[in-house]
Structure formats: structure tokens, C-alpha cells
Amino acid sequence: MSEFLTDNQADTLQFPSHNTPIDDIEYVYIQDDPMERIKDSDRRTGSFWFIPMRTGYDKVFYGTGFTYASGLISGGVVGVYEGFKRSPNRLFKVQFNSIINQTTRYGPWYANTMGVLALGWATLDNLFWSIRGTDDYANHIAAGFTTGLIFKSTQGLRTAVKTGSLLALGITGFGFMKSQFDKKK
Questions:
Q1: Helices (runs of H) and strands (runs of E) counted in the chain
Q2: Ramachandran region of residue 133, left (φ > 0), alpha (ψ -120 to 50) or beta?
Q3: pLDDT tens-place string over residues 143-179
Q4: What does each C-alpha distance from 5 to 8, 9, 16, 133 come to in angstroms?
Q5: Which residues, including other chains, have CB under 8 Å from residue 69's CB and lie 6 or more apart?
Q6: What is the Cα gyration radius of the chain?
Q7: Is the whole model's pTM more than 0.85, yes or no?
């Protein structure tokens, strides 16, 4: 900071002390914990599988990011498989080019699709939680069904209901596996 200020300007700078409020402005200091200002009863705690959740929006951010990365990896694996399968001959350069082409085709598509679905699900799950006032698997399942319904709504009612049912079934299966895993602990 001294590079930008002359010596006499640096001497006249005054910072408020930790205990002195000025003009009713509440300062947040480095040693303060901003989470202390939120009552424990107002915060949701727990986890979604192995991802710890402190607030409803942790699910939006961490869940979407984790799902996007999972989609990128799984799309890459599918791309490698398709690259080997669609390669016109067995020369290394041709196979490598085919693998790269298919990986860049499937990886981003899977990642974007899964990221959008996770973002929609987490947002709707938080919306249902705020409406109902409780955080349970009924919210998760309803949010999954609604997300699938909205995601495929342009392809007709039948396809939208199938997609919503598939997502709701996947979330139900995940909840069942999680409850079985928790019983073994």
C-alpha cells in the first residue's frame, strides 16, 4: 500500500478499531465468523450422500458442480468407447483421432445435460422445501419428477412424463441405497 501513497498520506489513514462502530455501520472483520450471525435453527444441516450440506444452496452449487464433472467424465468414457468402436481402421493416428472426436462430442453433451438436470432438481428441491417447510425425500422425488417434466416438455407429454418418472425413480433408488448403507453403519 505504501507504493501507492506518499508517506504523509499513509500516516493519515485511520481504520476503525474492532470495538468502535462508526455511524451505525457494522463491519465484518477477518476474525469474525459470518456464519455466527445465522441462528442454528435457521440452517439446514446434514449431507447428501458424501457431500456435506449447511444450507439449501450448497446443494445447488456443490451438486451441480459435482454432477457436471461426473457427466464430463462419463461422457469422456463413452467417447473413448465410441472412438474405438467407430474407428475405420487400426492405425494409431486414426484411432487416436476418432477417440478425440468422440470424446469431445459426448463429454460436453453429457456434462451439460447432467449439470442442467442437477441445477433444476436442486432449485426445485429448495423451492419445495421453502413451501412445505420440511426437508425429506418427498421433496427430492417431486423435484426430480418436475425437473424431468420441464426438461423434456418440448418433446410431448408422454416423453416428459417418462423422463420425470425416470428421474424420480432414480432418486428413490438412491434414497433406498442410502438408507440401506446408513443401517449398516
A1: 5, 2
A2: left
A3: 999 999 999 999 999 999 999 999 999 999 988 888 8
A4: 8, 6, 19, 54
A5: 111
A6: 25
A7: no
